[in-house]
Write a structure and sequence with these properties.
It contains 12 helices and 4 strands; from the N terminus they run H-H-H-H-H-H-H-H-H-H-H-E-E-E-H-E. It is mostly helical and 314 residues long.
């Protein structure tokens, strides 16, 4: 199987995307924003087809459209009551706009199919390097904002009172989601990106009660999903996107066979159970170190509507 260059490229690309998508997806599930992630992929379709229309590489249009849409969704704010309605309208309009662009350039119908359903077996070495840069940028940016992101997710009122800009965190996070979405589209396509980004993360949150093991498990499940999907596609000649999607569904359903557990996020900058402080200030927070008791209180408060119930434990 690995005697073929296209399979080597496919495994490399799928691995990069699986890591980035699963890490971003973990936070996406916690925040209850999976619908936004799904919508971004459809916006990317309009951007990619529009780029083809004007002679620009589809990946460039895809990136530009998803990043702009992610920033726009973040600017809607956490308290916009009809945010989901607006996102749904944008989702449908974007897909329709993409089809309109294809109407003018029917010669690119094969590219549209690849965008909609993915074509990982057609990835070349240049695309692998582009995905590597995109993946590193996604994971790096997520690492930078992960701490204020968790704080703003678990207790937005307290985070805002302590100097964290909820709108800025939301914008930055959805821009990161946009980057991960753009990368994932290369593997499973616009219509199926949800399974690679959300299924492993949601399953991991059912199987573990701690943050860092949960993130690691999400990555492992995504890699298994991608690698096994590619292997099955090679030996069965069935579409890779089908296998990855089917395996994602199996992983998610298998995780739900066990008893329901509340996910508990652990502040794990150190491994001590009773250190007494959380190390490193939150961006935008100019006060001294926070008491661990203060963060533990977040677990007893009600999380944002639609988000995963979480707890912090020392």
């Amino acid at each position: 199987m690995f005697d073929y260059e296209f399979m080597v490229n496919a495994f490399a690309a799928a691995s990069i995307v699986a890591v980035a998508a699963s890490l971003v997806g973990y936070f996406l599930v916690i925040r209850g924003q999976t619908f936004a992630g799904h919508a971004l992929s459809h916006v990317g379709f309009a951007g990619a087809t529009g780029a083809v229309l004007i002679g620009v590489p589809p990946l460039a249009g895809l990136l530009l459209a998803t990043v702009a849409a992610g920033a726009g969704m973040g600017l809607l704010g956490e308290r916009f009551q009809q945010r989901d309605v607006a996102i749904g309208i944008v989702l449908a309009a974007s897909l329709g706009l993409g089809l309109l662009f294809l109407h003018f350039f029917t010669a690119y119908a094969s590219q549209a199919t690849a965008l909609l359903f993915g074509n990982v077996l057609g990835v070349d070495t240049q695309t692998v390097f582009a995905l590597l840069v995109l993946g590193l940028a996604t994971v790096g940016a997520l690492a930078v904002i992960s701490r204020p992101l968790l704080f703003a997710t678990l207790q937005p009122e307290l985070a805002e009172a302590r100097g964290v800009s909820l709108k800025l965190v939301s914008v930055l996070f959805l821009v990161i989601v946009a980057l991960a979405t753009a990368a994932s589209v290369q593997i499973v396509g616009i219509l199926l990106v949800f399974t690679l980004m959300v299924a492993p993360a949601a399953a991991a949150q059912r199987l573990t009660i701690r943050l860092w093991p949960g993130l690691a498990l999400s990555v492992v499940l995504a890699l298994v999903e991608a690698w096994l999907g590619l292997t099955l596609a090679f030996y069965t000649d069935w579409p890779t996107s089908f296998w990855i999607t089917a395996l994602g569904a199996v992983i998610y359903l298998s995780a739900h066979l066990g008893p329901r557990r509340r996910a508990r996020l652990v502040e794990a900058h150190d491994g001590h159970a009773h250190d007494g402080h959380v190390h490193g200030p939150l961006p935008g927070h100019h006060a001294g170190p926070q008491s661990q008791d203060g963060l533990s209180q977040l677990a007893r408060d009600t999380p944002p509507k639609g988000a995963t119930t979480v707890e912090l434990e020392p």
